[in-house]
Amino acid sequence: MFDWGAPIRNLDLLMQGLVVTLQVATLSFVFAFALGLVGALARRSHFWPLRFVATVYVEVIRNTPVLLQIFVIFFGLPSVGIRFDAVTAGIIALSVNSGAYLTEIIRAGIQSISRGQIEAAIALGLTPAQIFGRVVFPQALRNIYPPVVNQFIMVLLGSSLLSAIAVPDLTGNALVVNSRTYRTVEVFTFVTLVYAGLTLTASGLLNLLGRLLFPRATAR
Amino acid sequence: MKRQHRRVVALALLSIMVLGLLAGCAPKATPGAATQQTSTLQEVVKRGTLRVGVILSFPPFGSRNANGEPEGYDVDMAKEVANALGVKLEIIDTTAADRIPNLQTGKVDLVIGNFTRTAERAKAIAFTDPYVVAGQVLLVRKDSGIKGIADLTDKTVAVNKSSTADTLITAANPKAKIQRYDTAAAALLAVKQGQADATIEDSNYLAYQAKLDPTMEVTHDSLVPLEYNGFGLRQGDVDWLTWLNLFIFNANASGTNKQLYMKWFGKEPSFPLQPQF
After folding, report:
1. A166 vs B179: CB contact, 8 Å cut-off?
2. pLDDT digits over B177-187, tens only?
3. How far is A14 from chain B (nearest CA, A)?
4. Residues 78-107 of B with CB under 8 A from A
């Protein structure tokens, strides 16, 4: 009835897909975090146009489906002369999408630092850059670490949508293997388990990293 | 007190929403998958509804009209089958990749989806006699200079993940770069938007697309031996297969099939339904 050899015989194709998935997800997350940091600062800026732009960015991205954002960047932008290959378009789409969520997460983290700490830092004569880099951000990062890890998992799983624009990621290659072997249940069950193993490993490692980086957070 | 009251209302609202969602997702019974003793033919007649998988992203074989209703050559063919059975028709939108899984899991009784009959596929499902014949050609932008598969070296070809084109290109010109999309429509869009240099598909489908967009053209010769496309059904159902073959024979003999072809493609079928020595 079942032929579990089907995914095993095509393991090299699936593993190539896994590598693409990991690369795309990691790169996208790094860019998304940078975007989120800039976005969070912009949303707390005293200069209203900056605040406005950041708010529009967050609201537009968070209120539209990520698949459509991917289509717009890959299929839509060539109409105005901007052309990215599938992997680049995919990384841009995931970064821009996740950046909006990270903007809100990081902003929440920054706002969680009490006003008194900043006043104390000012009293100690720290410059604004020092206040942010040494007082506010490290503590904010500790507070938002769990949702940030969660966001990474979202990017990792969300990268499966890129198979729609022909990115040869784990899902894309699984669809190809499926169409060659017609072993739907076996192939998709196998790939689902690979994703589960991947995210469990990733969140396990990142939680461990969190404990090393923020020892006080776990002592509570 | 007032606060607690509000919380009760909120909870009630939430549970209504959740229940509503659950009701919407309630699993429908999927008969037909397990019980192979009774033929699909009898099941369909008893049920009074024929469920046909059609690719609705593949005009003029299948698409949706302005009112969202399915239309196309394969859709009309499905209507003829339902009429001949005297049952209602339910069209189930599918993709090339989902045609076989839809049959295997009993979600459809029949697939009419420009289905090319290959020996590999016939290991998983059964096919009827052919109802339409096609070649495979390339669709390119007019200024691309691509005339055939040999010109595809270092060029990008957009294919549908599970069409027969995928294996064909890889074998004929290993230096062609392949992009695999979920639908023929997405592969076509990739060529139109310059994300790929060519797409390879069914000659009937691409000739129709080139007619719609004057900046595109199709290459002349079929890149493969002709493909004789049939309906797909589950394996091991002789009654159903025999009935469907009889239906196709009658549709050909009466000229209904030819009429439908001319209605959708605007020309007579290019190739005869039976191969000649």
Report:
1. yes
2. 999 998 888 99
3. 15
4. 96-97, 100-101, 104-105
3-state helix vs strand vs coil in chain A, percent to 5:
85, 0, 15
Asked if B114 contacts B53 with a C-beta cutoff of 8 angstroms, the reply is no
Per-residue pLDDT tens over the stretch B154-169: 999 999 887 777 778 8
What is the residue type of B64? R
Establish if B179 touches chain A: CB-CB under 8 angstroms: yes
Residues of A in Cβ contact (< 8 Å) with B194: 78, 83
ipTM of the complex: 0.71
pTM (2 decimals)? Answer: 0.70
Nearest CA in chain B to A77: B193
Q: Which two tokens stand for residue A66?
A: 């990520």
Options 3.40.630.10, 3.40.50.970, 3.40.50.11600, 3.40.190.10; CATH of B40-133+228-265: 3.40.190.10
What domains, with CATH codes, occur in chain A? 10-219 (1.10.3720.10)
What is d(CA A124, CA B18) in angstroms, rounded to the nearest whole number?
53
pLDDT in tens, A42-90: 999 999 999 999 999 999 999 999 999 999 999 999 989 898 999 999 9
Interface contact A187, partner B, CB < 8 A: no
CB contact under 8 A, A74 and B195: yes
